[in-house]
Amino acid sequence: MKVGSVVMEKVEDKMPPVTVYLVEAFSYLEKGGNTAGVMLNADNLSREDRLSIAKQVGVSETAFVSQNEKADFAVAFFTPTEEVDFCGHATVATFWLLKHLGIVSEGRYMQETKAGVLAVDVDTTGLVTMEQTRPTWMNVYSADVIAPLFGLSERALSKLALPIQALSTGLPDIIVPVPKGELDKVVMDEKAVVDFSRQEKVIGFHLFELNPEKGGVTAYCRNFAPAVGISEESATGSASGALACYLYKQLGLTSMCFEQGRAMGKTSRLWAELSIKADDIAQVHVSGMAYLRDRILVALL
């Protein structure tokens, strides 16, 4: 049997294969984006089933959607190697797909995740805006520690006089500012990045270079998370929320557009909006579009 790009043989003594949708989240004009797997009606799957499916799908994250008593949906996120608390691009993929299939209409919905119960808004065009948790500020790192992980010089990372800091709006990432022109020169030392990520208990690193007032893009970004099986990804919603909070703290920005995936040939667009009360971040929202790339069948092993 063949559906999409995966070929499976049906074995009578096993459960039939399940359908997984491949959705390009944070696409721009139906190009680019970051592929997420989305499986609906996942209520009866065990954690082991979900991990097996995510490994076979092989994209950075697969979302599993179930019924829930606390929210409209429960959504669990799995990389090919483990479950994570939250995933921004898989959230966009999930709710865009629900709208595309007519399961939901425009409006506000609540999803229960391991990061908490979070709001998701869907508009008539399919644009998905997701709420993230308020920022948790974590360790600050020196340039001489971080630069060798990405083949950059300490001097290059020190040039902007901006801190290298870990923070989380759902998942912890280390935010690394680099001077303009340096982002595409990055060469990750994968083993060192994996070791450092595990030592510091972060998902990965989100590198950015500022691009003021050019084409409406605030910053170009790259995200590396090999510790959870993602060497690099083309759009990272959770880290974009964290970066937005970082740029508010450092530069006072509240409305931003990020471009990611250029180095991978999958240029993506992510929009971030912050609500501020009494000079503090009250709400974090990240928005994006998506499109359906494929539908595949995956065996329950």
TrEMBL record:
GO terms for cellular component: cytoplasm. Pfam families: PhzC-PhzF. Keywords: Isomerase. Its EC number is 5.1.-.-. One of its GO terms (molecular function) is isomerase activity. The keyword Isomerase applies. It is an enzyme of class 5 (isomerase). It comes from the Bacteria. The active site is at residue 61. Belongs to the PhzF family. NCBIfam families: PhzF_family (TIGR00654). This is Putative isomerase YddE.
